[in-house]
């Protein structure tokens, strides 16, 4: 029996916002950010090597994919418009 292969797609990268010595401080900071920005994904992660908690954030992958699609469409429109303009000159 073979399982259907599901390809994992990476989302946008996580960026480190701040580091804290306790989880309570990091969680308070995260909750404050969640109130302000609803299009972000925010997590608190334990950094073992530095013995601290890291607050990381990234844009929501669904929103990021939509933004990239819109950029691609705009680029395609510009190319098409430029080509049509070139053809009219002939």
Calculate the mean pLDDT score and round it: 87
List unreliable stretches of 5+ residues: none
Q: What coarse outline follows from CA principal-axis ratios?
A: elongated
**Pattern of helices and strands:** EHEEH
Most strands sheet = 3 strands, antiparallel
Strand order of the largest sheet: 1-3-2
The beta-strand count equals: 3
Class inferred from helices and paired strands? alpha+beta
Q: Termini distance?
A: 61 Å
How big is the Rg? 21 Å
- How large a portion of the residues is in β-strands, by DSSP E? 15-25%
- Number of spatially distinct domains: 2
Number of helices: 2
Helix percent band: 40-55%
Describe the protein.
With 90 residues, this protein is α+β, with helices and mostly antiparallel strands. The protein has 2 domains: 13-59; 61-90. Helix content is 48%, strand content 24%. The chain has 2 helices and 3 strands. A 3-stranded antiparallel beta sheet has the order 1-3-2. A hairpin with a 4-residue loop joins β2 and β3 (52-59). The longest helix has 29 residues, at 61-89. The model has no long low-confidence stretch (mean pLDDT 87).
Task: Give the SSE map.
Elements (H helix, E strand, L loop, with lengths): L14 E6 L2 H14 L3 E8 L4 E8 L1 H29 L1
Antiparallel strand pairs: 1-3, 2-3
Task: Quickly describe the structure.
This protein is α+β, with helices and mostly antiparallel strands. It is about 50% helix and about 25% strand. The protein has a three-stranded antiparallel sheet.
């Amino acid at each position: 029996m073979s399982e259907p292969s599901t390809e994992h797609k990476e989302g946008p990268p996580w960026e480190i916002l701040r580091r804290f010595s306790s989880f309570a401080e990091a969680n308070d900071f995260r909750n404050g950010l969640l109130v302000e920005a609803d299009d972000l994904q925010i997590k608190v992660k334990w950094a073992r090597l530095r013995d601290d908690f890291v607050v990381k954030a990234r844009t929501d992958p669904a929103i990021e994919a939509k933004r990239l699609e819109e950029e691609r469409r705009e680029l395609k429109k510009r190319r098409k418009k430029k080509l049509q303009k070139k053809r009219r000159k002939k």
